C-alpha cells in the first residue's frame, strides 16, 4: 500500500522536534523511492543579506530523507543520520524551496539518498546533498 502525502505529513508532526516543524515543511509528492517536500520562504529562515540559511536547507534535506525512507518502508521507523554532505550552489532569496530526496539504496539496516534543493520561483538548483542513515527498527 502506498503512503499518502497526508500520512507522510502526520509523520512530520509526530516525529520531529518543534524547531524542525517551524521550517513549515509539507509533503508534495511520494513514490516508492522518493519524496518531495516544500519549504516555504520565510524571512525568519534568512540570514544577513536575505538568503535562506544553509542550516535550514540542511535540516530540510535531512527531514526529506526520513520521509522518503518512511514512504519506501510503508511507515515511519526509528532511524538516525550517519552522514550528510551538502554542497551549496546558489543563494535562495524570496522563493519556496522544493526538496527532492531519491533513495539510491534501501537495505535492512542502512539507507542512502541523493537530495536536490531547487528554488521554486526560478527552477534553479540551490544545493545538493547526500545522506546515509542507519535504520534502527
Quickly describe the structure.
The protein is α+β, with helices and mostly antiparallel strands and 137 residues long. 26% of the residues lie in helices and 39% in strands.
Q: What is the general shape?
A: globular
Q: What pattern of helices and strands is seen along the backbone?
A: HHEEHEEEE
- Radius of gyration based on Cα positions: 14 Å
How many runs of DSSP E, i.e. beta strands? 6
Secondary structural class: alpha+beta
How many helical elements?
A: 3
Q: Could you state the oligomeric state of the chains shown?
A: single chain
Low-confidence stretches: none
| Sheet with most strands: strand arrangement | 1-2-4-5-6-3
Distance between the termini: 19 Å
Described by strand count, sense and barrel closure, the largest sheet is: 6 strands, antiparallel
Beta strand %: 35-45%
Round the mean pLDDT to the nearest integer and report it.
Answer: 95
Q: How much helical structure, as a percent, in the residues?
A: 25-40%
Describe the structure.
The chain is α+β, with helices and mostly antiparallel strands. Helices cover 26% and strands 39% of the residues. A 6-stranded antiparallel beta sheet has the order 1-2-4-5-6-3. Strand 5 and strand 6 form a beta hairpin. The protein is globular and about 45 Å long. The relative contact order is 0.20.
Features:
137 residues, alpha+beta, 6-stranded antiparallel β-sheet, 6 strands, 39% strand
Amino acid at each position: 500500500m502506498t503512503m499518502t502525502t497526508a500520512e507522510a505529513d502526520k509523520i512530520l508532526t509526530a516525529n520531529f522536534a518543534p524547531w524542525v516543524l517551524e521550517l513549515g515543511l509539507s509533503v508534495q509528492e511520494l513514490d516508492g523511492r522518493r519524496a518531495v517536500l516544500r519549504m516555504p520562504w520565510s524571512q525568519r529562515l534568512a540570514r544577513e543579506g536575505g538568503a535562506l540559511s544553509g542550516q535550514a536547507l540542511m535540516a530540510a534535506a535531512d527531514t526529506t530523507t526520513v520521509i522518503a525512507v518512511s514512504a519506501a518502508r510503508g511507515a515511519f521507523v526509528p532511524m538516525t543520520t550517519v552522514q550528510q554532505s551538502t554542497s551549496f550552489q546558489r543563494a535562495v532569496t524570496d522563493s519556496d524551496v522544493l526538496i527532492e530526496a531519491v533513495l539510491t539504496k534501501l537495505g535492512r539496516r542502512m539507507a542512502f539518498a541523493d537530495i536536490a534543493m531547487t528554488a521554486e520561483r526560478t527552477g534553479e538548483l540551490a544545493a545538493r546533498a547526500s545522506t546515509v542513515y542507519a535504520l534502527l527498527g
